[in-house]
Amino acid sequence: MGLYLRCILVMAVVSALILPRAARSDAPKKAAFDQCAVCHSTDGSNGTGPTLKGVFGRQSGTVAGFRYSRAMRGAGIRWDEKTLDQYLSSPQEFIAGNVMPFSGVDDPTERASIIAYLRALN
């Protein structure tokens, strides 16, 4: 077997070992987001809730075409790991008067998975 074919074979084997592992590691993050996907898209379109595509670094209440509550528009929050964690923990406590009908995610590991998934969308 020539050197060229050996290189291709090695690359194929390495890819077969790495790619499934990467896909498995993303699955729990996406699964954690499924509860959010009922209202929020990740493709840039607004639904019942605003799109969460590009949420990292975005100012609260600023997605064009979405009608936010006065509380969310006036919150002045820049979304990052810390603010998303606080918000997802208890949306009504973090931004009093927001109208998202969701009580929050109690499990810190689940919140971290959701945040990691959202981070990957940016």
Number of domains: 1
List the secondary-structure elements in sequence, H or E: HHHHH
End-to-end CA span: 44 Å
The largest sheet, given as strand count, sense and whether it forms a barrel, is: none
Rg from alpha-carbon coordinates:
19 Å
CATH superfamily descriptor:
Cytochrome c-like domain
CATH level 1 class label: Mainly Alpha
- Uncertain runs are 3-24
Overall mean confidence score, pLDDT: 83
CATH architecture: Orthogonal Bundle
Shape: globular
Q: Helix fraction?
A: 40-55%
How many beta-strand elements? 0
**Alpha-beta classification:** mainly alpha
Per DSSP, what share of the residues sits in E-state strands of 2 or more residues? under 5%
Task: Give the helix tally.
Answer: 5
CATH topology: Cytochrome Bc1 Complex, Chain D, domain 2
Describe the structure concisely.
By secondary structure, the chain is an all-alpha fold. The chain contains five helices and no strands.
Note the main attributes of this structure.
single chain; 122 residues; mainly alpha; Cytochrome Bc1 Complex, Chain D, domain 2; 5 helices; disordered N terminus
